[in-house]
């Protein structure tokens, strides 16, 4: 019994659709949806649909309007001649903009790489400074004679890094143990760094 009632209600609902409702649901809504979809696709591709639609309008619409006295209007032919040039100019400008955007993106990527490299170098510099401070502390505990003998054998750059971190008393003691020309060179290099 319930099934029969439900079937009757469904049949009544099916019969309640008028011709206009059927027309609206089956024809008008799908066509409107299709037009909206086409408009969205063309807009996404960069086509100005409204400018394109104006090209299909008759060119003699200016005859319906009365010209205003005292105003100089360009003839329709001159307007049509400038449109292709402006469209080409717009396309060229859009290409230039996209090229510039690509160039900016490339430069930003290079800048990020350079910043990463700078951070890496700063981290390495900090490691070198901490290790030279440890070495300087080690040389502080050595006798000046042994420290001078070792520093003589080191590369000049490394020796300067260590000497820079030593106390003044220890530095003078080590330089006093070196040969005069070598001590003078280190003294000059240390003075230039300060």
Automatic annotation (TrEMBL):
Q: Where is the composition biased (Basic and acidic residues)?
A: 68-87
Q: Where are the transmembrane segments?
A: 23-44
Keyword Thylakoid attributed: no
Task: Show where the Magnesium transporter MgtE intracellular domain sits.
Answer: 133-191
Q: Which superkingdom does the taxonomy of this entry point to?
A: Bacteria
Q: Which UniProt keywords apply?
A: Cell projection, Cilium, Flagellum, Membrane, Transmembrane, Transmembrane helix
Per the record, a Pfam family? Answer: MgtE_N
Q: Where is this region: Disordered?
A: 61-87
Keyword Transmembrane listed: yes
Q: What is this protein called?
A: Flagellar motility protein MotE (MotC chaperone)
